[in-house]
Amino acid sequence: MRRITRIATVGLASAALALSATACGGKKSSDTGAAPSESGQKSAAIAYDIGGRGDQSFNDAAFAGLEKAEKDLKIKGAEAEPTEGESEADKVQRLTELARKGNNPVIGVGFSYAPAIKKVAPKFPNTTFGIIDDTSVTDKNIANLVFNEEQGSYLAGVAAAKASKSGTVGFIGGVEVPLIKKFEAGFTQGVKDTNPNAKVLSTYLTQPPDFSGFAKPDLGKAAAKGQLDNGADVIYSAAGLAGSGAIEATATAGKWAIGVDSDQYNQAGLAKYKDHILTSVTKDVSGAVYNLIKSVEDGKPQTGEVRYGLDKDGVGLADSNPEYKKMADLIAAVDKAKADIIAKKITVKTAP
Fold first, then answer.
1. Which of 44, 70, 104, 160 could form a disulfide with 169 if both were Cys (CB 3.0 to 4.6 A apart)?
2. pTM of the full predicted structure?
3. What does pLDDT average to over the chain?
4. What distance in Å separates the CA atoms of residue 135 and residue 34, rounded to the nearest whole number?
5. Distance CA 189, CA 349 (A)
């Protein structure tokens, strides 16, 4: 039976009360933590990135890893959602609350949790903290779960170039930050290496510190429509929840969409558009979450950089769409590119 506890925004109020109690002589925030969970059952927690669970992409992949751990390892799972326009203090309170409740590990889904984990992890030395997509914050109880997104994106570029009839393809990034520029760099290189005459249109939905480009499907939809109007017939989006809007617009126009992070062809929320989802660049976020939880359960917690690339199937290209499987020339090109990257015959750029 599913036992995952979902912590809504009210959790922030609870954390605030806990901090107030500390000021009045309650349990200090410097306590080592990792106390037994309220039920006495071992537990693990994830704190979601912008967009939250239900984004059909990044956050949902993390949830799948937690759910698998709950089933296979017989642990209790907890989730915590972000709030719109939240401050750094909100993230600190969220992680503190999860750690105080005895969850181990506590995983921040996304690089935005780096400053908060830097503050919270030292206060709970017996708790393992995981952070996905960031290596900037390190400590003996922090595991940095990172991926070679540029490698999977290169394969998407090869596929896009092969599938395009117009010679123009598009890339949509949620927010223009170094992580998403890795996706763009790999994709553009893959397209150009396959068809030097191809044109790549690149659009970013927002600029930091505005991270709403990961959360608003209408922005992705408008960006895709703009690229379609400019001749793109294959569009790859690395934009979290906003990417669903890009997929909708592309599919409605009868063109090819390329998904990201999860195999979006198989996402229930995108079922209406699945026939036009050519493929997806997958990141084994679910596997990374599961592996970290299992390492803690085994008494050998992962720490430091844990990297997933093509060589470990940590990134890849989905082939769920039957139409994709019919494209022999495309598949051959993708397979060759994958082999060449693993053999280091191709070095994929991490910046445009």
1. 160
2. 0.85
3. 90
4. 23
5. 7
